[in-house]
UniProtKB/TrEMBL annotation:
Similarity remark: Belongs to the SAICAR synthetase family.
Gene3D superfamilies on file: ATP-grasp fold, B domain, Phosphorylase Kinase, domain 1
Pathway in which the depicted protein is active: Purine metabolism; IMP biosynthesis via de novo pathway; 5-amino-1-(5-phospho-D-ribosyl)imidazole-4-carboxamide from 5-amino-1-(5-phospho-D-ribosyl)imidazole-4-carboxylate: step 1/2
Record keywords: ATP-binding, Ligase, Nucleotide-binding, Purine biosynthesis
Record-given protein name: Phosphoribosylaminoimidazole-succinocarboxamide synthase
Matches recorded under NCBIfam families: PRK13961.1, purC
Length: 262
């Protein structure tokens, strides 16, 4: 984008930090510090990074993490049928090649149980490819794939139940995992942000249509409507930028029960 959403990186970082802590009893994560405030973070970074030209870019947008062996999958869990899953289901009654037992699903309907629908982890600048769980098992091995799927669905269910108490439906989300030196499963990257999840306003939920969201789907829809999806250097109208940021801030405030401070 030619003009980005101000403070977006900071919002995503703080929301990830919230979820890493919230889910820490369910799965360990890669955070290296208990206190990720800027003052404490920069004490642990090389001194040159405290120079203004670097600090201004890193402050509020950075977490110090432990290095893990990354599992090369985008671990997507879907609780509701929407987006690319809905498009596929309309054509073939499948999602990521999986036959869906429920019949005559409507757009935005909840699955009986959440489903694991992985994708490849593409190189920067390329697009991830939706794959079946069987293909994912070929990539990382069946035992590890099953472990990842089970843990991801567990995490999704824990987060979904909490979000529901705050008036938000988590329709789907993407997790990433790594392995530590003892091959224990560790949650890494970002987690449950508006960039990696679909957050719906529960109060406005209506079956059979797309939903009001607190995530980047709003921006995706604008780009698609204007024929600009997947194009580089797009300059967004300021009202679209402002409304996108407002959705991110609202998601942060509702989920964390904290006021966003610039």
């Amino acid at each position: 984008m030619a003009n980005g959403v101000s403070s977006k990186g900071k919002i995503l970082t703080k929301l990830s930090e919230f979820w890493f802590d919230f889910l820490s009893d369910t799965v360990p994560n890669h955070l290296a510090l208990n206190d990720n405030s800027d003052d404490n973070l920069f004490k642990h970074l090389p001194a040159p990074l405290s120079e203004p030209k670097y600090r201004n870019q890193l402050a509020g947008r950075s977490l110090l993490v432990k290095k893990m062996k990354l599992i090369p999958l985008e671990v997507i869990v879907r609780g509701y049928i929407t987006g690319s899953a809905w498009k596929e289901y309309k054509k073939s009654k499948t999602v990521h090649g999986l036959a869906i037992a429920q019949t005559d699903l409507q757009e935005s309907e909840e699955f009986t149980t959440p489903i694991f629908t992985p994708s490849t982890k593409a190189e920067q600048g390329e697009h991830d490819e939706n794959i079946s769980p069987e293909k994912a098992a070929e990539i990382v091995g069946k035992e590890l794939c099953d472990k990842v799927a089970t843990k991801a669905i567990e995490l999704y269910c824990v987060a979904k139940e909490y979000a529901k108490t705050q008036g938000i439906i988590i329709a789907d989300t993407k997790f990433e995992f790594g392995l530590d030196e003892d091959d224990n499963l560790v949650l890494v990257d970002e987690v449950l942000t508006p960039d990696s999840s679909r957050f719906w306003n529960a109060a406005n939920f209506a079956l059979g249509k797309s939903q009001d969201s607190y995530d980047k789907q709003f921006l995706r829809d604008w780009l698609t409507t204007n024929g600009l999806a997947y194009k580089d250097g797009v300059a967004m109208p300021e009202d679209i930028v402002t409304r996108t940021k407002a959705k991110y801030v609202e998601a942060y405030e509702v989920l964390t029960r904290s006021k966003w401070v610039e």
